[in-house]
Amino acid sequence: MTEQYLTPEAKASYGIGRQMGEQLAANPFEGVVNSAVAAGLIDALEGKESTVSRADLEAAFGVISQRMQEVQAAKAKELAGAGEAFLAENAKKAGITTTASGLQYEVITEGEGAKPTATSRVKTHYHGTLIDGTVFDSSYDRGQPIDFAVNGVIAGWTEALQLMPVGSKWRLYVPYNLAYGERGAGAAIGPFSTLIFDVELLDIVG
User: Fold this and answer.
1) Residue 156 and residue 101: Cα distance in Å, rounded?
2) Angle at which helices 8-26 and 34-45 pack, to 10 degrees?
3) Do the beta carbons of residue 162 and residue 115 sit within 8 Å?
4) 19: which DSSP letter?
5) 29 pLDDT band (50/70/90 cuts)?
6) What DSSP letter does each residue of 35-95 carry, written as one string?
7) Burial bucket for residue 42 (CB in 10 Å: 0-12, 13-18, 19+)
8) CB-side exposure of 173: number of CA atoms within 13 Å?
């Protein structure tokens, strides 16, 4: 490789192309034609007219975009179904309470302190996973509890915290509509994800 690209300009040029290729490879569409990608890049750099008309390009992008949206919708539906099935089975287990909203919880430790209100500020430790056990966030792992407003977090937490006396540790099973909904949150939490949290209510701080 180094014999082919000897000068800094050649190496940097290769690097630019490599970065563009990696970006496309990270989010490809089914049927991408590598040679056409390369041809389009070269034509643009050389100032040539597009081989494909603007109207045809727009139509093609529309078709591909629609296909990708359908794939994402299918994946989201699968995630939602998996979460619903998990919660349905989980509800049958001893010690699981299901509220009117669909939130499920089990009491690991029952505290004896006061219960926060929606406008309280609380300090908690927590550990969050997907239903397959993948950890997406944990204050325990960071070794640092966090404090926040009860009404400033996901709906499942807002509901559960108002039921928990200080000193309690509960495991929450939060359906997607009480968590991050149809959009998810970042790369770790996909759309329609049911989430599991171990939540320890340490104190009411305000």
Assistant:
1) 9
2) 130
3) yes
4) H
5) confident
6) HHHHHHHHHHHTTPPPSS-HHHHHHHHHHHHHHHHHHHHHHHHHHHHHHHHHHHHHTTSTT
7) exposed
8) 23
pLDDT in tens, 39-89: 999 999 999 999 999 999 999 999 999 998 888 778 777 778 889 999 999
One-letter identity of residue 66: Q
Contact 116, 162 (CB under 8 A): yes
Neighbouring CB atoms inside 10 A of 40's CB total 16
On the question of pLDDT at 4 being above 90, the answer is no
What amino acid positions are annotated as catalytic residues?
Answer: 126, 136-137, 154, 180, 197
Which of 176, 167, 177 lies closest to 199 in space, CA to CA? 167
Q: pTM of this prediction?
A: 0.69
pLDDT in tens, 102-146: 999 999 999 999 999 999 999 999 999 999 999 999 999 999 999
